[in-house]
Amino acid sequence: MADNDDILLKIRHSAAHVMAEAVIQIFPTAKIAIGPAIENGFYYDFDLPRTLTPEDLEEIEKLMKAVIKGKHTFTRQVVSRKEAEAMFKDQPYKLELIAELPEGEEISIYTQGAFTDLCRGPHVANTGEIDPAGVKLLSISSAYWRGDEKREQLQRIYGTAWRNKKELDAHLTMLEEAKKRDHRKLGRDLEIFFFDDEIGPGLPLWMPKGGVIIEELEKLAKEMEAAAGYERVKTPHLTKESLFLKSGHLPYYAESMYPPMELEGTTYYIKPMNCPFHHKIFGCRTRSYRELPLRLAEYGTCYRYEKSGELFGLMRVRSMQMNDAHIYCAEDQFETEFMAVIDMYNAYFKLFGIEKFLMRFSTHGKEGLGKKYVDNEALWLKTEDMVRKVMTKSGIPFTEVADEAAFYGPKIDVQIWSAIGREFTLATNQVDFAVPERFNLKFMNKAGTEETPLCLHRAPLSTHERMIGFLLEHFAGALPVWLSPVQVAVIPVAEPFNGYVAEIEAMLKTKGIRARADLSSDRFNAKIRLAQAEKIPYMMIAGEQEQTKKTVSVRLRTGEQLKDLAQSAFADLVKGKITSRSLSLQ
RNA sequence: GCCGGAAUAGCUCAGGGGUAGAGCAAUGCUCUCGUAAAGCAUGGGUCGACAGUUCAAUUCUGUCUUCCGGCUCCA
Length: 586
Fold this sequence. Notes:
The chain is an alpha+beta fold. The chain contains 17 helices and 29 strands. The chain has three domains: about 1-170, 2-Layer Sandwich (Threonyl-tRNA Synthetase, Chain A, domain 2); about 185-235 and about 275-470, BirA Bifunctional Protein, domain 2; about 480-580, Rossmann fold. It is about 35% helix and about 25% strand. An eight-stranded mixed β-sheet has the order 11-16-17-24-21-20-18-19, sandwiched between helices. A hairpin with a 2-residue loop joins β2 (about 35-40) and β3. α1 packs across α2 (about 55-70), α6 crosses α13 (about 465-475) and α10 packs across α11. The protein binds one RNA strand through β7, β8, α6, β17 and β21.
């Protein structure tokens, strides 16, 4: 496997160089930036005299294939800094990269045919090792130089590259399949949510079926949180400006907030997060160490003015309902509390069968102290160490990323990927050693002196929006029974059995099962097709035989059939799957 | 927010300087039908919005709005 990855990496990285060569053939004055191999392919960033069109893409692909067929050798050469600077004197982006290479580091260049690039490698030995039928350019987009929105905007060409045509086709088919499980498409087809121009971008409308899913998720959260010692609170959507000044969010966070409202000389803001409200509840009176850990939970609705281009279906919205909670604890309780939160994540992920995720530990960056981060290096180091220890002890794999923390402390984020491959933070668990201080939160410790608690911010079920967006994709719309808006479609074989079917529907409903009889004039086959398209887990079918024997036949959405079940046996089966929140249907 | 693309019926899409079409869905009628699409009929569109060019704009041009692919950013 490692060998495979290795050769694919070389093919992709080499394809990027070949593409750069092709682009330079068309635009001799092109300035080249960087062109790495990425998952499934490669890209290269260019500064070009004009914007590229889809026709250019075809032309570039044609030229690439010609270059590949030329069977040019990739030659590696080590050069001095001076030589490199002379070689790339017309390539400002390369010069910038060279200038940043540390003294003493080897500077290598790779040449194939007429194209030379500053590059660390590795590459295939010869362009002939790339199968031209395994390479395809996918899209043109833009990218900022060095990922900095204040710097030059470059044109990026994305491509995919594989060992051969068969692998390429398989990948393209996979992309097509992924589009079908895109939550934006499923959400509309299954009538779960939609957006309306008159309401506004990023403000989803949840339809009745979406409402069911939300209710079920909240029920789950309530159960889990009650069992873990959380208490539920409710706080307003609005607050005076002074609260966010105190929390430090203004002006730091102002550009992500809806603009202020002025009324009778007072300025109000809509809340982008719940923390300051919960801090107020903690601080409403003197707290005793006996009350800690105090865990305040709320499915709080927040509003954030995300930049227009950042919106993405349900995964990135402007109004969101967060599975929020704040845990106030003493320092010696931190490890247990933090671990309990991680355990809760894992319980949820197991319940949903989420296997592909990454826990990311974000720490501060020294340079941001006093700017991006609260200016207290000792506390940063201390809390980061605490988190690192807990995580290591838990044995859960995680990656550590510097300079990605929240401004008040280190955090563990859970990263997931959308159907089309975009990465998102699903859940988060953040340490806050700074804001309780700002709110002057205190508890009386055993010794009778005042102490400031630590605060954990956590949202294991993310927001309803992102969670449901993710779950729709994760299950390709075929939600587990307990989350399915309609759990049983009750279908008569023909009209004369409508009465029997309605009886069964009523019986299932009294047992708390979401059943829906289809008494329309459609033919029986069409009813099955509709229920199947709606991804209803159970299609309960009844006709002459069932009516006589007082039984039911069941078709699962997987296509399997259960024949001649007693009515009660079927109801018990469904009920069991619901209460156990099972992923299986039988 | 930035770069590029797009917007025609509830959905998927065709069309094109002379005010629009299909399939599915919806509605009505007919039909005694066993595990993924019965038949017939009917209704439905300021062709995203606002300007401009033109005898005439849904079609051409501009601005705006929204969506899509990325970048940046994030629950």
